[in-house]
User: Fold this.
Amino acid sequence: MQKLYSDLQRNEAYLRQLYNHCSDVMYHSFLIEGRTKALIMHIEGLADTEGIERFVVTPLMLEGNENCEDIGDLIRRRVSSLQVKKFTLFSECAEALSDGNTILIIEGQTACYSFGMTKWEKRAVEEPSAEVGIRGPREGFTEDLRTNTSQIRRIIKTPKLKMESVKIGEYTRTSVVLAYIEDLVDETLIEEIRSRLNHIRIDGILESGYIEEMIEDHPYSPFPQLLSTERPDVVSSCLLEGRAAILTEGTPFVLVAPVTFFSLLQSQEDYYQRSIITTTIRWLRYSFVAVALLLPSLYVAVITFHQEMVPGSLLISMASSREAVPFPALIEALIMEITFEALREAGVRLPKQVGAAVSIVGALVIGQAAVQAGLVSAPMIIVVAITGISSFMIPRYITGIAVRLLRFPLIFLAGSLGLVGVVMGVIAIVLHMCNLRSFGVPYLSEISTPNFNEWKDTLAREHWWKMNTRPRFIGKYKKYRQPPGQRPDPTRGNGK
Assistant:
């Protein structure tokens, strides 16, 4: 670690060599009080040039009557900056410059001073496009880390909300913040997340997905083991349950750990609607998740091996529609499923103005043309359409991808072994999920425990005044979130 020299020229020469061919690094030499040589450095586009001139350079150039033997005391008196730090290493200077700070180097000093004069263009707070809701807050995270942390602070105002920062990436030096509520989270979980973050060795972090793959328990599983969200209210609710959040600079997506399978099937609106409405929608959602996973494979199995399970009139109608189709049901299903997934991905990648039109019109046109050409049957089009609509019921995009991927091996098993193959595939998926862990928490922990309190927010969503306890994850935790008996007795009049 190279320390700064007491000679200003040597320090400037070292930094100019370090930032050779960097046209955006600005240097400005001046005299403090007209007698002491000094050098100001900042990166254009990251620092507030007007603020540097007004609050740093101009006050230090003025000649005054202060008898300040310590230059640091003079800086504290004259410079109007709340973030003043002192560094003695060139590596610390470079890191401060990269963060948008302004560096002041003074003749005869073996230390430099950093001022928080950052200013760059950033996206305004908007409604998240991937998690649109009917009821609830409309704010979403942005790419600016401090904007994101401030949004959480604005919701959770207790000083027990802790935010630990770490730099990851040899070249990007990306700021990553670990957020948790001290009284609610288990320290074992925080120690584990800290350890995994500190063990990441990579040249750069551009998005939170890099970190997700680095720290998840089972990287080869199709199921996500961390929740990614753009909504501050979702992160805040998870923190209040005793979870931890990982915020990454440069991305609006925040990671939450630990998670379970049923928590990935819950929407933020489940907690803003009335209990009976939320419970009904949840059961509808769970039913359509099963449809999205199993319907094509069940159709292939019945058509190929178990025609006796279909009523006679329906079987005749299906047979007549398949009479001109040259492919077996397995190939027919694969063709339509792959085509539908391609159209769906094309709609996502295209601009919003044409993406929805291409995905919908393309599916209609191709489906109708395929039926008229005799390549696929009309019942298969209906099955694929219902499956596609069912997959849209899954609130988390990454969870929907896992269901879509597992649909294809189930189709192969159905075309090879019939319903026996489908049952074997479902058993294999359930066994795999039973073996999954998210930072030590079983993936199916809600339904694997006989504790009724854990079911109040799983198969149904109880009234808020009945959900007195928090979900248990690992180790110690604060069990009760509210005292019992919050609901007044309406027969007593005004709750008295």
In short: The chain has a mean pLDDT of 85.
